[in-house]
Amino acid sequence: MVTSTAHRVDEDTRQKAPAPHHAEVAVSQKQRHWRESLAGYGFLAPWLVGFFGLTLGPMLYSLYLSFTRYNLFQPPQWIGFDNYIRLFTDDPNFTQSVKITLIYVLVGTPIKLAAALGVAMLLNYRDRGAGFFRSSFYAPSLIGASVSVAIVWRAMFSADGPVDNTLSIFGITIGGWVGNVALVVPMMILLAVWQFGAPMVIFLAGLKQVPRELYEAADMDGAGPVKKFRSITLPMLSSVVFFNLLLELIGAFQVFSSAYIISNGTGGPAGMTNFYTLYLYKRAFSDGQMGYASAMAWVLLIVVAIIAFVLFRTSKSWVHYQGENR
Amino acid sequence: MVNVHKRRRFMAVVALTAASGIALSACSSGSDADPSASGSSGGGEAASGEDVTLDFAFWGNDVRADMYTQSIDLFMEEYPNITVNSTFLDYPAFWEKRQTEAAGGGLPDVMQFDYSYLRQYSENGLLLDLAPYLGNEIATDGLSEQILGIGVVGDQTTGIATSTNAWGMYTNPQLLESAGVEEFGGGSWDDYKSWVAEVTEASGGEVFGGTDYTGRIQNFEVQLRAEGKNLFNEDGTPGFDEARLAEFWESGADMRGEDGSGISQQKLEEIYPVSGFGSALTASELTWDNFGAGYLGELGESYTELGLVAPPVTVEGAKDLYLKPSMLHSVSASTEHPAEAAMLVDFLVNSPEVGAIFGTNRGLPASTTMQEGMTFEGLDAQIRDYEESVADRLGDAPPVPLVGYGTLEEKFRVLGTELGFGTVTVEDAVSQFFSEMDVVLNS
Prior knowledge:
The complex is a heterodimer. Chain A is mainly α. Helix content of chain A is about 75%, strand content about 0%. Chain A has helices spanning about 1-15, 20-25, 30-65, 80-90, 90-125, 130-145, 145-155, 160-170, 185-195, 195-210, 210-220, 225-255, 255-260, 275-285, 290-320, and strands at about 70, 75-80. In chain A, a hairpin with a 7-residue loop joins strand 1 and strand 2 (about 75-80). The radius of gyration of chain A is 26 Å and the shape is globular. Chain B has 2 domains: about 50-165 and about 325-390, Periplasmic binding protein-like II (D-Maltodextrin-Binding Protein, domain 2, 3-Layer(aba) Sandwich); about 165-320 and about 405-440, D-Maltodextrin-Binding Protein, domain 2 (3-Layer(aba) Sandwich), CATH 3.40.190.10. Chain B has a 6-stranded mixed beta sheet with strand order 2-1-3-10-6-11. Chain B has a 3-stranded antiparallel beta sheet with strand order 8-7-9, with helices on both faces. Chain B has a two-stranded antiparallel sheet with strand order 4-5. Chain B is globular and about 65 Å long. The chains are: A mainly alpha, B alpha+beta. The interface of A and B includes residues 5, 179, 268 and 287 of A.
């Protein structure tokens, strides 16, 4: 596969190289157009191969698997909608996992976006040192997905860790957060919020696009900072807010690695870090219930798609694109 | 225009470079695979003497990893043409990895194997039948018929037991001394619970007498066996009903939670992956008797000895305990070097030097050849004596665990932790376990 693609690209360019001198006039517009699109597809080919072979193919296969019982050892066995029925009627772990995932998404995402916007506005306020602060606030997002940060997080929030010790100075003795059923989800949300760098950079870019004149005019009219934020910044940023909200929601639904590492892959304590994708993973790879896990994956896909659809629909009423008369 | 042209040419160069890079790397991986394939695929059962590399995987902690490293160094000294790459993980992660590898056809050549997964992997043809190597690459002088029989599934020998172990109870003499409580002197499960409460109270809550034992399926099995039942019968049906499981889990209620007499689940979560006993936070732990060396390693240098006594008695005079293969060694059916793999298995199962290194870390060695290398001092002697002392409680081994037993064992453990946190009631836990059993037993 790979080599044939390489060949095709090779031939394309070899044919083309001598072409301009002789053929430029002879080649009709149509032929040229055809040739160009062929070249286009040639260049696209590696990506297309990847998309069909590594994304679409496995996705459709998992759709098929979601209607089967498949333990990796024996061939899949068709069972109709049994997996889906079991998910919604007979699996308390599923209910628990959906619950904590929704808490994580619905609480974590707004806080994260608010933090990102707040810091972006502070950075936008002054230019001096902005580059340094921008980089340092962005750094956690770069390394955030890595294993080491989750390990550090676990150490920080365990009993006698830095967080516990600092809080005990103020007379608050909580002990470890990691093993605490009530605090482990807030801790996970904190970890997510701390990685606000990516939306922050996008917010910052959006803030730079807001015309200064608007603020100057508002100043003339005697508007305060709150009024300016609500009437200028937010409307002008709405498209960026929409973009960030969509991406962060989708990302939050897929939280996995931090939960896996902080709970040592168990989803503990008492299933409080058993987020949707971690539960899916355990069903697939610890329990060998691939069909069931596939059904879970499709439920997640559909839920995320519905949320995205609803967001797009409502966006017409609150997202304002510059240069458009709405 | 010029710009567009330039950019296009530049892109073409980039694309070409990338494509040729991929093609080149494809070539090189092809040539990598070639010699190894031709090296051993000639139906060669016997070792070729050529340079070969074996992958070896085991589960365990740092203590065991050290022992394996030393043993494998000895092996490579003895067979300079064989290189062994070993990897290790903790128990749950080990099986997750094997499962994906099994589906992809890439199991390591040699694996430490667990009894509870042996049936599943054997019945799916993933493990090599070692019968042709018995008496050749794998010496059988030290292995009794009974020991060899442990690794037989269907009519194939897919695993060689390294060692056997029995269920027992470790106690921490230093903690007991500072609490001023006598060693557990035997008795019923209720006696054990009062003993645990006594230790916890005597230490002022600094340490705990033990852990809620109802979190482990083996304690349930011991109780069922005492009543003349199995955990799971040969046909895969459970030997207990909802009421019996509920009774078992309820019996641990006093030991659970913040005010329980046992260590709280929250503490256990925080110190994981070290155990409560290994952190010197609990004075007793019901477990397999080969865990002693691991505990000593976790407890550190101030500990040289542990107590090892028999588990509480459910029914007087019952044969509730049994000798279990603590682990086996198996070879992947897809290995390219079956003979060398068998030689490694032989070395790890039979070599007296390896016996000297491991002691009883993997259990009491199954091979008498290996036992010759051991001096049976301290803990090793203690374990041997322990197994002798409980001889009249040792009964026949239960049926080879059913397919999916590992999943159920883990489910049992997780439900135990949830009971510990109080996030699930006994009633709900029972119904969850039975619905899980339904899924596992019907697939």
